[in-house]
Design a protein that fits this description.
- The chain contains six helices and no strands.
- It has helices at about 25-45, 50-70, 75-100, 105-125, 135-155, 165-205.
- About 75% of the residues lie in helices and about 0% in strands.
């Protein structure tokens, strides 16, 4: 198993490999670490301003790690699994935190959790683990919208001018993000089924 990958040249095809310690994977770990920090800041310290900064850092790492992986040929199988897990963990945990804090209502959490629960059950049924599907463009846009909408919505809780404008803008981003969430879930649903049936057919043929 390799650990450090050399940079790729522009125009070279991006190939998944067994790299572990890459810059994109390190950034994904940073995103993991930002989740408990955000929870502590909001629920224990009531420091919404600093929590917004943490969300902004988490959102920027989600974009930066993908760019570095493509630009410098550091895509990896581990990264393909860790990245969507980090996204889901961040989105769900942030939603739970904001429900507890009274920033959003329970239905917002349900709208995020239900599609993910269905996909998780389907993945366990077919693969007993992660299906290892590439992250879709819709999924990335969805995550970006939700990670932008959440801090904008939180700005409305601070003593700032135009608080009502932040409230409206935040829900516009979140509404679009939720729509993208369900579209991405629909696409992943059928992708998991197709890949799962192919795997079962291959296993049956070898049997």
């Amino acid at each position: 198993m390799r650990f450090i990958g050399a940079g790729g040249r522009p125009g070279e095809p991006q190939v998944d490999n067994d790299l572990v310690f890459t810059i994109p994977n390190v950034l994904t770990v940073v995103r993991f670490m930002g989740v408990p920090l955000f929870v502590w800041l909001v629920l224990s310290q009531k420091e919404y301003g600093i929590a917004i900064v943490v969300l902004a850092v988490m959102g920027s790492t989600d974009w930066v790690d993908g760019y570095i992986a493509r630009r410098f040929n550091q895509t990896s199988r581990l990264g393909r699994i860790m990245d969507p897990i980090a996204d889901r963990l961040a989105l769900i945990t942030v939603a739970v935190t904001l429900v507890i804090a009274g920033v959003v209502q329970w239905w917002y959490l349900a709208a995020l959790a239900v599609p993910d629960a269905v996909l998780l059950a389907l993945s366990l049924y077919y693969f007993r683990s992660h299906p290892d599907l590439p992250v879709s463009r819709v999924g990335k846009i969805r995550t970006a919208l939700l990670l932008v909408g959440t801090p904008v919505l939180m700005l409305s809780r601070l003593s700032l001018p135009l608080a009502e404008l932040y409230l409206v803008a935040g829900w516009v981003f979140l509404g679009l993000g939720l729509a993208g969430h369900w579209i991405a879930a629909y696409n992943y649903f059928w992708a998991i089924i197709r890949k799962g049936k192919m795997r079962m057919a291959d296993d049956g043929g070898r049997g």
